[in-house]
Automatic annotation (TrEMBL):
Keyword field: Glycosidase, Hydrolase
Enzyme class: hydrolase
Identification of the protein by name: beta-N-acetylhexosaminidase
EC number: 3.2.1.52
Length: 550
C-alpha cells in the first residue's frame, strides 16, 4: 500500500487532470466589438456534454462546424439534433435558428443566453458563422467538463459589406492545409472575403487544362532571389521553385471556405505581371521570337518585359483561361489585376502600336482599358463581375467595374467621384508585408512601416467623400500580403498578427465604439491566448512600436 503522502499526491494529480466546471470568458473581451450587448443581472446557461446543438436545416454545415470547433477548443462533444417535429431530449441546447423576420440586415446575428438555451439567429450563412464565432469566444481555451455562460443579449452586424484579406501564393506558395488555416483566421475575425492572388511574373499557381504549359513551364522558376531585390550584388539560391494548386484542391478550399462564410476571389493578373504567361507561350508577348524565363526576382515594373501583346492569340488565350477559371469559383466577383502595366513595352512594339491605331484608341492607357473591358466581357458571359486595381482607371472604364485601391485617399476619392464602388486597400497602412517595427534586426520586408496603431486608426471612408455624400461608394477595405519576402507559413502569421485583429475591428465595429486602449487590453487578455492555442506566430512588440516612433 502506498504511503499516505503518495496516495494524496496521486489523488491530487488525478483531480487536476479532470476537466472541471468553468465560468465563461468575459463578455467584455469579445473582438471585434459587437453593436449592442445587454448583460443580464443574473442567470446563466450551463453547457456540458449532455447539451445538444439544435439546428434548422439551412445551417446543418454550420452546426457541424460549431460541434467541431467546440470539441477542439474545450473537449465538449455536443450531439447534433435537427430542428424537426421530434423534441430534443436534452435539457440545455445551443440553437441555430433561421430568422428572416427579426434579422433585417445581411450578415447580422443575435445571440441570446437565457433560460436553458443559447440561441443564435441569422438569415444567412455569414450571420450564423459570426454568431458562432462570438459564442466560441465565450468558451474557455481549455478542456472542461461544463461551462456556465452568463445570460446576455447580443445584437451584431458589420459596418462594411466587404471585409477582405489577400494572400500572394505566387512569389512563395503555401500548402493547401495552410490556406484552410488562413481561411479559419479570416472567419474568426469576421472577415468575409479571401482574395487569392494566383498568377504573376514569378509563377502560375492554378491548374490549367486549356493551356497546359502554364503549369509545365509557367509554374516553375529556375531559382529565387536571396535578400532584398535592391541589394548589390544580386544573389540567387540556385534552386528550382514552383508548383500549382490542382482543381480538386481548389474546389476543396472553396467548399471549406463556404461553410465558414468566406467568399473567395481569384486573381489572374493581366495585362502586365504576365512574365510567367509569356515564358510558357512567347507568342503572347511583344517579342514572340524571344525565349522568356519565369521571373526570378521581384520589382519587374519598367525593368523587365512582362506585358501581353494585343493580338488574336492573346485574346483567345484570355477568353479561354478566364472562363476556365471562372467555372471553378462560385463567387460573383473575379479580380483581373490591371496594376503596374508598363507602357514602355507597348510603345516599343509595332504590333501594339498598330493595334492602337486600328481600334481608334487614344494611347497605351486606352490599350490597357481595352484589355480590361475585353476580359470583363469574357467574364460577364460566365455571370461574373470584375474587380481591378486602381490603375485601370487610367482610361475610360465602365462604372460596373469595382475598383480596389492600393493607393491613398486621392485615388479612392477619384474612383468614387467617377461612380465606381471602391474597396480601400492602401499601402499605408494595409500592406501587411510592410514592417511592423523599425528594429533593424526585424525580419526582412519589402519596405514601409505599418504598425498596429496605424491599422487600428485607419478610416476607410475619406472625409471628402462624406462631405460630397459619396461615402456609400466605399463598400469596405482589405489588407494585402505580398509574399516576396515571406517564404514560410510562420512568417505569414508573424506579419498578419495582430494587425489582422485590428483590421477586423476597423471593418466590423461601429466607428464611434472604437478604443485603441481597450483594444490592446482585449488583445492581451483574450486574443493572444487564442493565437497561442492556434499555434500561430505573431509580432509580440506591438505596444512598443507605434506611429510616433521615428
Amino acid at each position: 500500500m502506498l504511503p499516505t503522502f503518495h496516495r494524496i499526491f496521486s489523488l491530487v494529480l488525478i483531480l487536476l487532470s479532470i476537466p472541471v466546471l468553468t465560468i465563461a470568458q468575459s463578455i467584455d473581451d469579445i473582438t471585434p466589438m459587437p453593436v449592442e450587448v445587454i448583460k443580464e443581472a443574473r442567470g446563466h446557461v450551463s453547457i456540458n456534454n449532455k447539451a445538444q446543438i439544435v439546428f434548422d436545416k439551412q445551417f446543418g454545415a454550420q452546426a457541424e462546424f460549431l460541434q467541431e470547433m467546440l470539441a477542439a477548443q474545450t473537449g465538449l462533444k455536443l450531439p447534433l439534433h435537427p430542428n424537426t417535429a421530434a423534441k430534443p431530449k436534452a435539457s440545455h441546447h445551443i440553437r441555430l435558428v433561421l430568422d428572416t423576420k427579426t434579422i433585417d440586415k445581411a450578415e447580422m446575428y443575435t445571440l441570446t443566453v437565457s433560460g436553458k438555451d443559447v440561441t443564435i439567429r441569422a438569415k444567412d450563412t455569414g450571420g450564423m458563422v459570426y454568431g458562432i464565432q462570438t459564442l466560441l469566444q465565450l468558451f474557455p481555451l481549455k478542456q472542461v467538463r461544463e461551462v456556465k455562460i452568463p445570460d446576455v443579449q447580443i445584437k451584431d452586424y458589420p459596418r462594411f459589406a466587404y471585409r477582405g484579406m489577400h494572400l500572394d501564393v505566387v512569389r512563395h506558395m503555401f500548402p493547401v492545409e495552410f490556406i484552410k488555416k488562413y481561411i479559419d483566421y479570416l472567419s474568426f475575425h469576421k472577415l468575409n472575403t479571401f482574395h487569392w492572388h494566383l498568377t504573376d511574373d514569378q509563377g502560375w499557381r492554378i491548374e490549367m487544362e486549356s493551356y497546359p504549359k502554364l503549369n509545365s513551364v509557367g509554374s516553375w522558376r529556375k531559382e529565387t532571389l536571396i535578400g532584398h531585390f535592391k541589394d548589390t550584388p544580386i544573389r540567387y539560391d540556385g534552386k528550382r521553385y514552383g508548383g500549382y494548386y490542382t482543381k480538386d484542391e481548389i474546389l476543396d478550399v472553396i467548399n471549406y471556405a463556404s461553410v465558414r462564410g468566406i467568399n473567395i476571389i481569384p486573381e489572374i493578373d493581366i495585362p502586365g505581371h504576365s512574365r510567367a504567361t509569356i515564358a510558357a507561350y512567347p507568342e503572347l508577348s511583344t517579342r514572340p521570337d524571344t525565349t522568356w524565363n519565369v521571373a526570378t526576382t521581384w520589382g519587374m515594373y519598367n525593368r523587365q518585359n512582362n506585358v501581353l501583346q494585343p493580338n488574336p492569340a492573346t485574346f483567345q488565350f484570355l477568353e479561354t483561361v478566364f472562363q476556365e477559371v471562372a467555372d471553378l469559383f462560385p463567387y460573383e466577383y473575379f479580380h483581373l489585376g490591371g496594376d503596374e502595366t508598363s507602357k514602355k513595352w507597348w510603345k516599343e512594339d509595332s504590333v501594339s502600336q498598330q493595334f492602337i491605331k486600328d481600334h481608334n484608341l487614344k494611347d497605351e492607357k486606352g490599350l490597357q482599358t481595352y484589355f480590361v473591358e475585353q476580359v470583363a466581357s469574357y467574364l460577364a458571359a460566365k455571370g461574373k463581375k470584375v474587380i481591378g486595381w486602381h490603375e485601370i482607371l487610367e482610361g475610360d472604364l465602365s462604372k460596373s467595374t469595382l475598383i480596389m485601391n492600393w493607393g491613398g485617399e486621392k485615388e479612392g476619392i477619384a474612383a468614387a467621384t467617377r461612380g465606381h464602388q471602391v474597396i480601400m486597400a492602401p499601402g499605408h497602412p494595409l500592406y501587411f508585408d510592410h514592417y511592423q517595427s523599425k528594429d533593424p534586426n526585424d525580419s526582412l520586408a519589402i519596405h514601409g512601416y505599418n504598425p498596429l496603431d496605424a491599422v487600428y486608426n485607419f478610416e476607410p471612408i475619406p472625409a471628402a467623400l462624406r462631405e460630397q455624400k459619396l461615402d456609400h461608394y466605399i463598400i469596405g477595405a482589405q489588407a494585402n500580403l505580398w509574399a516576396e519576402y515571406i517564404g514560410n507559413t510562420a512568417k505569414v502569421e508573424y506579419m498578419v498578427f495582430p494587425r489582422m485583429t485590428a483590421l477586423s475591428e476597423v471593418l466590423w465595429s461601429q466607428a464611434e465604439k472604437k478604443n485603441f486602449t481597450d483594444f490592446k487590453r482585449r488583445l492581451n487578455t483574450a486574443i493572444i491566448p487564442r493565437y497561442t492555442s492556434w499555434g500561430a506566430k505573431y509580432f509580440p512588440h506591438f505596444e512598443r512600436w507605434t506611429m510616433e516612433q521615428k
